[in-house]
Specification:
By secondary structure, the chain is α/β, with parallel strands linked by helices. The chain has helices at about 15-25, 55-65, 90-120, 140-160, 175-180, 195-205; strands spanning about 5-10, 30-35, 45-50, 70-75, 120-125, 165-170, 215-220. Helices cover about 40% and strands about 15% of the residues. β4 (about 70-75), α3 and β5 form a beta-alpha-beta unit.
């Protein structure tokens, strides 16, 4: 199996994509640890840990508890359409950078030294296909995801010679209950199924992807 004998840590494990990554990873032979700020009770395929990804000490304690692992899937994040660039408040801007950038930074601070010390491992972040260019009323969100993409490329350059692969997936619209509720008239068949995206995340965490470094991989379904 793709992830046989590997231990994967999934942030945002309570969400639609995080839980899908956990299920697919477990089905592919991985030992799964799910992290989220809320308790995760509706799964039976892995360990769950409540962790505030915005708090450095909370994240450090979580990874001390986890110990050695092989794959980090940084799935935690969020979306908000928002106002125009010139109307966005500091609070709105900072909220998106907190959930999409600060969470990633806090986890990387705690997790990457473990992988580097082992000389082996994989990190998969989540950018956004939309962040390849600007769009109206999405300035803060796309800016935050652009930062994740540049962090992915930069970290890859820093650790690829140390045995650690760092890549990111760039989904378009993911087929989640919230997105269906927010866009009820859309053609859901063109969106990205969470488990199909999870398959790509798990591939990037496998030994089959050891030659891939710093990739920003579009996963856009039929959109």
């Amino acid at each position: 199996m793709l992830l046989a004998k590997k231990k994967i840590v999934v942030t945002g494990g309570a969400g639609a994509l995080g839980s899908a990554v956990g299920r697919v990873a477990a089905a592919n032979g991985a030992s799964v640890t799910l992290l989220d700020v809320v308790p995760i009770s509706d799964q039976d395929y892995g360990e769950t840990i409540v962790c505030d990804l915005l708090d450095r000490e909370s994240v450090a304690q979580c990874f001390q508890k986890i110990g050695d692992f092989d794959v980090l899937a940084n799935i935690a994040g969020g979306f908000d359409m928002g106002p125009s660039v010139h109307e966005a408040t500091d609070e709105f801007w900072e909220s998106l950078f907190d959930i999409n950038v600060k969470t990633v930074r806090r986890v990387l601070e705690a997790a990457v030294p473990i992988l580097v010390n082992r000389g082996y491992g994989s990190v998969i972040n989540v950018g956004a296909q939309g962040a390849m260019r600007g769009m109206a009323n999405m300035g803060a969100y796309l800016s935050s995801k652009s930062v994740v993409m540049r962090l992915t490329e930069s970290l890859s350059e820093e650790v690829k010679e140390k045995g650690v692969n760092v890549n990111a997936v760039l989904p378009s619209i993911i087929d989640t209950p919230r997105n269906r509720s927010d866009m009820p008239d859309a053609d859901f068949s063109k969106w990205v199924d969470p488990e199909e995206l999870a398959n790509v995340v798990c591939f990037l965490g496998s030994d089959s992807a050891k030659a891939i470094h710093g990739a920003l991989l579009p996963v856009v379904g039929l959109s």
